[in-house]
Amino acid sequence: MFDKILVPVDFSEGARTAFGHGALFAAAFASRLELVHVVEEVGQANHAFWATEPALAGQLHRQAVASAEAAMARLLPSLPIAPGTRLETLVLSGTMPATLAEHAAETGASLMVVSTHGRTGLSRWLLGSVSERLLRASPCPVLIARGGSAQSQPGVHRVLAAVDLSEHSRRALQIAGEVARRLGAALEVLYVWAAPFYDASEHFDAQLFERIRQSARAELDAFVASATLPPELAVQSGISSGTPSERIAERIQATAPDLLVLGSHGHGGFKRLVLGSVSETTVRYASCAALVVPPARNA
Length: 299
Description:
Blueprint: E1 4-8, H1 13-29, E2 32-40, H2 47-51, H3 54-75, E3 86-94, H4 98-107, E4 111-115, H5 120-125, H6 129-137, E5 142-145, E6 158-163, H7 167-183, E7 186-193, H8 200-203, H9 206-226, E8 235-241, H10 244-255, E9 259-263, H11 277-281, E10 289-293
Parallel strand pairs: 1-2, 1-4, 2-3, 4-5, 6-7, 6-9, 7-8, 9-10
Antiparallel strand pairs: 5-10
């Protein structure tokens, strides 16, 4: 499933966090790990000036690449690399996040691991519009690790999969199930359905609400069954009504999962999950790591 794991680094503490999560998945899936740093082209800013100084721009860029390669060499001895880990390093030139997405597609990367904390470019990827472009552009699932030294040696014991019953969501659930199985974790599946009441005090109908709730429960049961999860996996499922981002956040707070898994495209409220405000209150502000699964490449 995850044959090659791509870990972008910016040589900050956040890089260690991302590497820790990448190494955890690499051990579970017998994956190859590749650490990648992107050196941004000098002429991206103040293009008019650098267009008149191509020799100087080229010299500065070569110096930046050499500096990055030296920093990569210094980083490796400080990482907790387990014996037998298949690890490669690479310094690329280009723009972020486009260069990473292109490299992932060209080399067949099946997972990208990034951290929410870092300096320079990476610290901004998951804190604004660049992160949304990365999640849109990435051809593979993106694992967003929460920064901090406490998570540099992560463990995953509880996985929460948030679903919306779409086909893309089914793929995310299947990946969540395999991740939970490989890591020996318990899996919980959450479906948030929308109640048709804009003002509960005026329009609430208890009988209608219960009928919809029962239907949602039956739909979720059928959906989970259709995902053909590993039979040995401990699976718990539940439903909730309301705004997806709010209910997911509440469930994370109540159960403290180590990993949230969700699809990046679906229907209803989940269609915007990594494309707007819902993203900010789920993936961006979730207290746990989050694995965002895009549609299959041939979808």
